[in-house]
Design brief:
Shape: rod-shaped
Largest sheet: none
Distance between the termini: 86 Å
Oligomer: single chain
Helix content: over 70%
Radius of gyration: 27 Å
Mean pLDDT: 77
Order of helices and strands: HHHH
Number of strands: 0
Number of helices: 4
């Protein structure tokens, strides 16, 4: 049975559309897989060093117990910056400063 050229052209365009849709679908699936893989890591990061009143209080207590010196001064500056960021609603910056203050308390 001979195929009509117009029909074969229509089939090839249809196959191309299906292939294009499949490619887009696979891309969306890949992006979703990456998002689901990264989300728990980000949640764990924020749970450990996130900007919360409990973490601020623990860090402030640790700073108070530090010996006077450059490390304590740096930690005090970071905790002040964390508090300022918290008051301004900048949770990412608050977490960053709090994390630096925590590291300063452990370093010396």
């Amino acid at each position: 049975m001979a195929q009509i050229p117009a029909m074969s052209l229509g089939l090839s365009q249809e196959q191309e559309k299906e292939s294009n849709i499949m490619t887009k679908l696979l891309g969306v699936i890949a992006i979703a897989a990456v998002a689901f893989a990264v989300a728990p890591a980000q949640a764990a990061k924020h749970a450990m060093g996130g900007c919360s009143s409990a973490n601020l209080e623990k860090t402030e207590t640790a700073i108070e117990n530090m010996a006077d010196g450059d490390g304590k001064f740096a930690a005090q500056k970071e905790i002040a910056a964390a508090q300022d960021s918290l008051l301004n609603g900048k949770m990412g910056a608050c977490g960053t400063h709090l994390n630096k203050a925590m590291h300063a308390t452990m370093g010396k």
